Amino acid sequence: MELPRILLIGKIGQVGWELRRTLAPMARVTCVDFPDIDLTNGDSIRRWVREARPNIVINAAAYTAVDKAESEPDKAMKINGVAPGILAEEAKKLGALLVHYSTDYVFDGAKTEPYAETDAPNPLGAYGRTKLAGDEAVRAIGGAHLIFRLCWVYGARGQNFMLTMMRLAREREKLRVVGDQVGCPTWSRMIAETTTLALTQVVAASDPAAFTGTYHLASSGVTSWHGFADAIVKLMPAEGKKCTQVEAITTAEYPTPTKRPAYSVLSCSKLERTFGLRLPHWDESLKQVLEL
Question: Residue 206's pLDDT is what?
């Protein structure tokens, strides 16, 4: 059987970098990132898809600077809101599947039980609004697609909460971290591996379009940013670590340009029902990352 052709956009991002490794055995993968592809430019997007002629397009690129999006809403909307719709159009023309990543920030965090895919979105800031616009654009095109909503993504590369906490723990004796926002810290490698396992099933199916839809993809277990930070610091090697205390503070004590959801827990039961996949507990993944 001929291996599928995949166009992976966002090859140097946290998830994209891991996807390059996990997809390699199952497909012929063309990888691209800015500046070779410009997601603010529709012609650039169309040219890449038309030349690659993939069976699967994976969009692992996004404008992810949550606070900066408040001052750059137009740029964020082009990348997060408009580009996914263009990718969906081009994929549909080719009869290709589009895989797109979304975020827990499409929700307002007012719930007290895990969000299901059917819950009404209500983003609190520009980043969440632009990501929701991208999801809606993909659905509106009506081609075969998988939208994976992610939560609190981190990993050993790039810019993320874990690496920031590790850096600060080497510089300071005490860290003060928000304790009244809860979610599911999710390792970028687990996202890539789960995506690849799901795609293997879709590719093998007699009707791949039957899988079309939105799925929540996040670690098992729940913690706060403070709980996550405390676990990171405790698991760090002692050598070079200054921090001896991680103090919990309120959101009000740490104001940011964008209001964050207080409750970002995603129910992943649909993913488990459809693909038989469930991510491990967040603290198990964290231990693995810090063993690398």
Answer: 87
